[in-house]
């Protein structure tokens, strides 16, 4: 196991915190911590202030669940988005991936996860009622069920397709360009744009 005992306790503490980030192991955390030692005091202060404001200022959009700094996110507030199409995603972190693809100009709805019975996560834990309310308001022509193509993602898409089968809204799924089992958070822009363009009807 990587040993950080040779470092001062303040540096050990920082390495331990950085190692808690997704995809960051102990060695990567050490490199990041040592790199921060070369930053100016002003840059470190700005970083610290940004981290504090992160929890204070970042909210969730009251309409779609996207990250926001107000009641409505920049996408829901944009006057030129295609409001008749909603792309249903698992997490807010997946929205920037779709935006970078350049292949989607509609709105989003964040479920806040996916159905995973083995982890005790059922449909009631997801933001499905919020989606139902949006459909009830009218004006929606298509729901793109853009959950990841793994077991839990497919189960979630199937549940939603059944739940909204009689809604009169077209239900579609991303094309097979996205590898089976892949997490959409890490899909490249070109692949995602192709999957969006070739989406298939579920009903």
Average pLDDT figure: 88
What is the 3D form? elongated
State the order of secondary-structure elements, H for helix, E for strand: HHHEEHEHEHEHEHE
CATH topology annotation of the largest domain:
Dna Topoisomerase Vi A Subunit, Chain: A, domain 2
Strand order of the largest sheet: 4-3-5-6-7
CATH classification class of the largest domain: Alpha Beta
- Percentage of residues in DSSP E strands: 5-15%
Class from secondary-structure proportions: alpha/beta
Point out poorly predicted stretches: none
Number of helices: 8
The total tally of domains equals 2
Number of strands: 7
* Largest sheet data: 5 strands, mixed
Helix content: 25-40%
CATH architecture level-2 label of the largest domain: 3-Layer(aba) Sandwich
Q: What's the alpha carbon Rg, rounded to whole Å?
A: 20 Å
Q: What is the straight-line distance between the termini?
A: 52 Å
In short:
It is built from eight helices and seven strands, in the order αααββαβαβαβαβαβ.
Written description of the protein model:
The chain has 203 residues and is α/β, with parallel strands linked by helices. The chain has 2 domains: 9-57, RecR Domain 1 (Helicase, Ruva Protein, domain 3, Orthogonal Bundle); 78-201, Dna Topoisomerase Vi A Subunit, Chain: A, domain 2 (3-Layer(aba) Sandwich), CATH 3.40.1360. The protein is built from 8 helices and 7 strands. The protein has helices at residues 9-18, 26-36, 41-57, 74-77, 95-101, 128-136, 151-163, 189-197, and strands at residues 59-60, 67-68, 82-89, 106-110, 142-145, 170-173, 200-201. The strands form 2 sheets. It has a 5-stranded mixed β-sheet with strand order 4-3-5-6-7, covered by helices on one side. It has a two-stranded antiparallel ribbon with strand order 1-2. β3 (82-89), α5 (95-101) and β4 (106-110) form a beta-alpha-beta unit. α5 (95-101) crosses α8 (189-197).
């Amino acid at each position: 196991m990587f040993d950080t005992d040779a470092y001062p306790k303040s540096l050990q503490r920082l390495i331990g915190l950085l190692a808690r980030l997704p995809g960051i192991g102990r060695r990567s955390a050490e490199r990041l911590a040592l790199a921060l030692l070369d930053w100016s005091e002003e840059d470190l202060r700005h970083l610290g202030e940004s981290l504090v404001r992160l929890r204070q200022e970042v909210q969730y959009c009251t309409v779609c669940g996207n990250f926001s700094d107000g009641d409505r996110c920049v996408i829901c507030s944009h006057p030129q988005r295609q409001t008749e199409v909603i792309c249903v995603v698992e997490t807010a972190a997946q929205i920037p991936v779709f935006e970078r693809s350049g292949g989607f100009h509609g709105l989003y709805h964040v479920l806040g996860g996916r159905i995973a019975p083995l982890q005790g996560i059922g449909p009631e834990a997801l933001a499905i009622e919020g989606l139902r309310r949006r459909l009830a308001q009218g004006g929606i022509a298509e729901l793109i069920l853009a959950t990841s193509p793994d077991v839990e993602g497919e189960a979630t898409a199937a549940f939603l397709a059944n739940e909204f089968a009689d809604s009169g809204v077209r239900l579609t799924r991303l094309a097979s360009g996205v590898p089976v089992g892949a997490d959409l958070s890490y899909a490249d822009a070109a692949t995602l744009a192709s999957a969006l363009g070739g989406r298939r009807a579920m009903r």
